[in-house]
Amino acid sequence: ALATWMIRVTGGASLVEAAVVVPVGPQSVEVSLSLNVANNLSIVVIDAASNLSAAVVRVVVQDALKPNPPVVSTPPEVTNAASITLQVDAEAGATIEVTGGAATSTAIAMSPVGVVVNLKLNQDNSLSVRAIDAAGNRSLAVTRLVTQDSTPPSLSVEAVSPLTQSASIVFRPTTEFGATLNATGGLSSVTDVGTGSPQNFPVGLTDAMPTDTLRTITIIATDAAGNGSVPFTVQVRHDSVAPVMPMVVTPPASTLAPYV
What is the pTM of this model? Predict the structure, then answer.
């Protein structure tokens, strides 16, 4: 014969009693929890004669509080690397989640922890960093913007004369705005910042006059991400040495010839 028993649960937000008909299989009992505390739930069965079973205890922590936003390091604004590592500090044991890159990256918070983030190539990556606690609460996002740029800058240089008597030579390079121009092989290394249009870029050849010197000048442009252009290379000879005075035979003081 079937009998009606009672399942009683205490230790939550309120007493719960649920009638069950036995014998039966596993039963589901919904228990309201006290918020943001540990709930020490005691479960007993009461038979039809009001006998109580031994209690089974289960501890459930109810947590509806968002974790604090994580503390996130500041990455480079521009990089030519395919990935970066963010140093993130968050609630111990929380899952750190980073979205906005090439794929979602996760790690377990350990005060702090390095999170490797793969970047979308040649575009802006607006990264959102959150902490997710064991209860599934998500913190407010901390954002970081990283531009991935693996495209070398263009560089063009107007033609120059391979021979000069000047102590310096002025090149006319054109490269992207903000890129660093660097010339080597001259009297000393020379740098300038690209304007996005042709610009004067003087390079010293000698500090001694007169002289005859052959120099190989190399100019390269490097953008903010560290990408280098194809080098421009040219040989320039600085020659400020006057030729030897010619030897001239003294002509006759007077002659009938139409030439000497």
Answer: 0.74
Q: pLDDT value at position 2?
A: 61
Which residues, at least 6 apart from 223, have a Cβ–Cβ distance to it below 8 Å? Answer: 78, 149, 152, 153, 176, 178, 179, 180
Which single residue is written with the structure tokens 């010293």? Answer: 204
Region for residue 135 given its phi and psi (left: phi exceeds 0; alpha: psi -120 to 50; beta: otherwise)? alpha
The predicted structure's pLDDT at residue 1: 47
Q: What is the radius of gyration, based on Cα positions, of the chain?
A: 41
186-239 per-position pLDDT tens digit: 989 999 999 999 999 999 988 876 778 899 999 999 999 999 999 999 999 988
Strands across the sheet with 71-72, in order?
71-72, 83-89, 113-118
User: Distance between CA 132 and CA 98 in Å, rounded?
Assistant: 11
What single-letter amino acid sits at 20?
A: V
Sequence-distant (≥ 6) Cβ neighbours of residue 215 within 8 angstroms: 185, 186, 205, 235, 236, 237, 238
Q: How crowded is residue 81: how many other Cβ atoms within 10 Å of its Cβ? A: 16
CA distances (Å), origin 233, targets 115, 150, 162: 42, 23, 12
Edge to edge, the sheet with strand 3-10 lists 16-22, 3-10, 38-46, 56-61
pLDDT of 125? 98
189: nearest Cα among 176, 174, 202: 202
